[in-house]
Design brief:
This protein has 440 residues and is an alpha/beta fold. The chain is 48% helix and 10% strand. The protein contains twelve helices and eight strands. The chain has helices at residues 3-22, 53-64, 86-98, 109-125, 148-170, 176-182, 193-201, 219-231, 254-264, 304-338, 362-375, 402-439, and strands at residues 183-188, 205-209, 235-242, 267-271, 343-345, 353-358, 381-385, 388-394. It has a four-stranded parallel β-sheet with strand order 2-1-3-4, with helices on both faces. Strand 3, helix 9 (254-264) and strand 4 form a beta-alpha-beta unit. The N and C termini lie far apart (84 Å).
């Protein structure tokens, strides 16, 4: 493909992408394919000779799209938003074209310098303490990580290296293995599984601490655990707090946890993979009070271009408007639930996530979820806290509207009404059968 053909095919691909998003409501949010569906559609070996663009392009619909989970569909309400915008897609095109690997300043000066500037833009927009900014000339400043899971692992490894160095100074005769065997980290029982995986990869024992009635990790629980571990000869060194947990979008109280970490000499890493963007809005910034941390990889893509494009083409006000709209849509869904006494909201609705269930058993709610996803008009996923199973309704797509929320609610009501009617019939049949046996 030369530049002339690239211009032509690039336009075709842009049109395909734009048409896909314009008509995404016509596609199922979750595919109907079975595991292994691709095996018969894709040859066992790569072609020896080049194929025509027309054949490859045709296979997008034949091979690829049937297996796509449409995360950006307004009918997709599972997990959390993935963050898509046309501005970001344009930035990805340029980033891929430049194709640099920014492991040093000289490897591509703009890759390093734009990332430094974008981190300051973001830090200032979030009103982080000045210690977090490159422009203050101190030890602060951040870089963009590939994933929140990677950021947690890097923070843990950094904290681990720091505490091992300090313990060797205090106990010169101790081996690194002996020090590591004493280290202990802490996180909430509501934290993401990636926190536990980070501890596993770092060969660190981690304690999952009990959250309060609002699913938040609090000061007293952390302090108690630290006292217990010190008494047992262990070395507390690291805490992972979550702002916006995966299960219910709960917020650990970092305003309480931070002073404990400072007092005890522990590093605290904050996982705000979902809720972090909401702190751009002044009315939600208080949830970040108590923050104090960033980290760095070596080789990295030119990811700051996406932030540069998005923040320039949308502006802080545009991003704030989008965040507020997503949260308002979640409140609309909550209002629907509160009007129907068959349902209950099981966690505070702070962001764009609503956790709910039908009044009844866990099995009834599992059946409801199964039927909703089999129906295929919307897609949800469940969660469970302690012994309570519930459904999660997340506002995911950037183009979700009030009509999409009403559509989802109508589907849920329809499927729930049918399920509850069948359940009532089964109960009545069983009761009649038991009464008949009693009369006999």
């Amino acid at each position: 493909m030369d530049s002339t053909e690239f211009r032509k095919r690039g336009r075709e691909m842009v049109d395909f992408i734009a048409d896909h998003f314009d008509n995404i409501r016509d596609r199922r949010p979750f595919p109907t394919v079975q595991p292994g569906y691709l095996q018969e559609l894709v040859p066992e070996e790569a072609p020896q000779e080049p194929e025509k663009w027309e054949d490859v392009f045709a296979d997008i619909e034949r091979v690829i799209m049937p297996g796509v989970t449409n995360w950006h569909s307004p009918q997709f309400h599972a997990y959390f938003p993935t963050g898509m915008s046309y501005a970001a897609i344009c930035a990805d095109m340029l980033s891929d074209a430049i194709g640099c690997i920014g492991f040093t300043w000289a490897a591509s000066p703009v890759c390093t310098e734009l990332e430094v500037k974008m981190m300051d833009w973001l830090g200032k927009a979030l009103k982080l303490p000045k210690e977090f900014l490159h422009c203050t000339g101190g030890q602060g400043g951040g870089v963009i990580q590939s994933t929140a899971s990677e950021a947690t692992l890097i923070a843990l490894l950094g904290a681990k290296s720091n505490v091992i160095h300090k313990q060797k100074q205090l106990h010169p005769s101790w081996s690194e293995y002996k020090i590591m065997s004493k280290l202990v980290a802490y996180t909430s029982e509501q934290s993401h599984s990636s926190v536990e995986r980070a501890a596993l990869l770092g060969s660190i024992q981690i304690r999952h601490l009990r959250a309060d009635d609002n699913y938040s990790l609090r000061e007293d629980v952390l302090e108690k655990a630290i006292i217990e571990d010190k008494a047992a000869g262990r070395i507390p060194f690291f805490v992972v707090a979550t702002l916006g947990t995966t299960s219910s979008c709960a917020f650990d109280n970092i305003k309480e946890l931070g002073p404990v970490c400072v007092r005890e000499g522990l590093w605290m890493h904050i996982d705000a993979a979902y809720a972090g963007s909401s702190f751009l809005c002044p009315e939600y910034r208080h949830l970040l009070d108590g923050v104090e941390h960033w980290q760095i990889p070596l080789g990295r893509r030119f990811r700051s271009l996406k932030l540069w494009f998005v923040m320039r083409l949308h502006g802080i006000k545009g991003l704030q408007e989008h965040i507020r709209n997503q949260i308002a849509l979640a409140q609309e869904f909550k209002a629907f639930l509160l009007q129907d006494k068959r349902f209950e909201v099981v966690a505070p609705v702070t962001m764009g996530l609503v956790c709910f269930r039908v009044q009844g058993s866990n099995e009834l709610n599992k059946c409801l979820l199964e039927r909703l996803n089999e129906d295929g008009r919307i897609h949800l996923v469940p969660s469970q806290i302690h012994s309570m199973y519930f459904l999660r309704m997340a506002v995911c797509a950037a183009n979700t509207e009030s009509s999409d929320i009403a559509f989802a609610w109508n589907v849920i009501q329809e499927v729930a009404t049918q399920l509850l009617a069948e359940t009532d019939n089964e109960v009545n049949h069983e009761r009649a059968h038991n009464d008949g046996e009693a009369d006999f």
